[in-house]
Amino acid sequence: MVWEQQCTLVVMLTTLVERGRIKCHKYWPDLYETDTYGHLQVSCVRQKETPSFAFREFTLINTQNREERHISHMQYLAWPDHGVPDEASDFLTFVQRVRRSRDGMVEPTVVHCSAGIGRTGVLVLMETAMCLVEAHEPVYPLDLTRDMRDQRAMLVQTPSQYKFVCEAILKVYNEGIVKPLPEYQRCLTTTV
């Protein structure tokens, strides 16, 4: 899928094992190693980990035509095994890093957790809310969640996830973590 859709960024919101259960299979090689999947060769050329995040760079080579692509892999490690984070700061830092990585990108981004609906939905809703704040637009989390669920059933899977993302949106707004962009403010003053 990454090759076919020409993705250059993969965002992973789970660890490989949680509470003794496999949540996601490791689909990348260790640092400085190469694995082959069909006609695609994947090499991990860079890796940096903090307690909350892992950042990796992969080289992906199509062995049929020798075409080479570079993929960034960002993994959020601080989501607890059960429930939601107690505090949104680490998550918001991660979302901001994802947003900076996507700045100017036209290729689609792959976002996944284990089932693809809970944590993935939280990240998509949070990023959408941040974009709306920048565009000086109102943020209605319930409406956004309903719209997202038209595309993928059950996004933002649990009430605790919904509450967490709503509190994170308030934090972003109240603390000025994301602000309306000047180009949108100019549009508002000239159209009012």
From TrEMBL:
It comes from the Eukaryota. InterPro entries: Prot-tyrosine_phosphatase-like, PTP_cat, Tyr_Pase_AS, Tyr_Pase_cat, Tyr_Pase_dom. GO terms for molecular function: protein tyrosine phosphatase activity. Pfam families: Y_phosphatase. GO terms for biological process: neuron development. Residues 89-163 form the Tyrosine specific protein phosphatases domain. Residues 1-172 form the Tyrosine-protein phosphatase domain. PROSITE patterns: TYR_PHOSPHATASE_1 (PS00383), TYR_PHOSPHATASE_2 (PS50056), TYR_PHOSPHATASE_PTP (PS50055). This is Protein tyrosine phosphatase ptpmeg. The lineage of its organism: Eukaryota, Metazoa, Ecdysozoa, Arthropoda, Chelicerata.
